[in-house]
Write a structure and sequence with these properties.
2 domains; globular; 341 residues; seven-stranded antiparallel beta sheet; single chain; mainly beta; six-stranded mixed beta sheet
Length: 341
């Protein structure tokens, strides 16, 4: 989950910025300054870790020395099972708490609750059960291009790859879904060192997860559900896209839907008043005190696809002249991922 969790913190930071940038309105924000933001999940995935990230988000003031998303360290987190069992998270990195999936896998139908002790307070989620999620039937991409006016007012070309999934929705009660993705790409550079002109870079999704429900198509096939977009870069050679699909409770779906709606607002006075963005981590001694964010209990499915870069309207005959190992999140070790072929 680490691959995409920054999205939630980016969006919440933007909400703080929008509140600071527009003229004041008769609206009282539903969260106090320096609120703790939680983002994490417990799933029935087969590998990896269950991860929860805690960050202290502060209202944007323009002070470049101020930390606006400070990791919350030293908290105590535990999962309680419906049979009374408990397991504690370990803090792997500042503000990031993990449990190995291999040691404590989630099970469909079982119920789980998260407890967080921090700043002398105790926050708990309600018990939620893992709902089964169908497999991803198809994962595919389509090349897209369009023209736009750049900062100089000139027409320019924008190219990239839209990522889609198809899913056979079960003929049961209403289902809610969340999708996100990450990818690895191969890059070639003109390095002065023969060893290092090919590298692989792991890239997070730059947008929040996509959510949808099956209210209008229950029991039918979900077709061409767009879950993301990868901008074209002439230096990239090959891609491995990893898409993940999760079941959501109705409450979790409402949270992510509202978050997406608030992110899409322009921040002007003509936007509708922000909806209440209530998370599910509540102070046991004060029901009005909630963390911002959401702890999910979800079923999990995944799929991968590889494709090569093709020449297109945005292609250029240029190459980066540097050691590709200097690029962020890069490695020169092959293979960069067990699924790379």
């Amino acid at each position: 989950m680490k691959k995409w969790q920054n999205s939630l913190f980016v969006v919440i930071s933007l909400l703080f910025v929008m509140m600071a940038c527009v003229d004041p309105l008769p609206f009282e924000p539903s969260f106090p300054p320096d609120v703790i933001v939680i983002d994490g999940s417990f799933t029935d995935a087969k590998e990896g870790v269950h991860r929860v990230k805690l960050t202290r988000a502060a209202a944007y003031t323009g002070d470049p020395a101020r930390v606006y998303n400070e990791p919350v360290q030293g908290a105590s987190l535990k999962i309680t099972f419906d049979n009374g069992g408990e397991v504690f998270f370990g803090e792997n990195e500042p503000g990031e708490y993990e449990i190995p999936i291999a040691s404590f896998p989630g099970e469909v139908g079982r119920r789980y609750q998260l407890t967080v002790e921090v700043d002398g307070k105790i926050y708990v989620s309600s018990f939620e059960s893992i709902q089964a999620v169908p497999p991803i039937d198809s994962l595919y991409f389509e090349y897209e291009s369009s023209t736009f006016r750049n900062e100089f007012g000139n027409l320019a070309e924008r190219c990239g790859y839209a990522i889609y999934v198809d899913v056979v929705d079960p003929d049961t009660s209403t289902n809610q879904y969340l999708w996100h993705y990450n990818y690895i790409y191969e890059i070639k550079t003109q390095s002065p060192f023969a060893c290092c002109n090919t590298c692989w870079i792991r890239q997070q999704s730059e947008t929040p997860p996509v959510v949808a429900e099956d209210a209008l198509i229950n029991g039918n096939r979900i077709v061409r559900q767009r879950i993301g977009y990868i901008p074209y870069d002439q230096f990239h050679v090959k891609y491995l896209v990893h898409a993940e699909q999760f079941s959501l409770s109705p409450e979790a779906y409402d949270f992510w839907k509202i978050l997406a709606q608030q992110q899409s607002g322009s921040g002007s006075i003509f936007d509708p008043p922000p909806s209440s963005l209530e998370g599910n981590m509540v102070n046991v001694n004060d029901s009005t005190d909630r963390m911002l964010g959401y702890f999910r209990v979800s079923g999990h499915a995944e799929a991968r696809i590889m494709f090569n870069l093709e020449a297109n309207a945005c292609s250029k005959d240029t190459m980066i002249k540097r050691d590709c190992r200097e690029l962020p999140n890069s490695t020169a070790d092959y293979p960069p991922d067990p699924y790379w072929m």
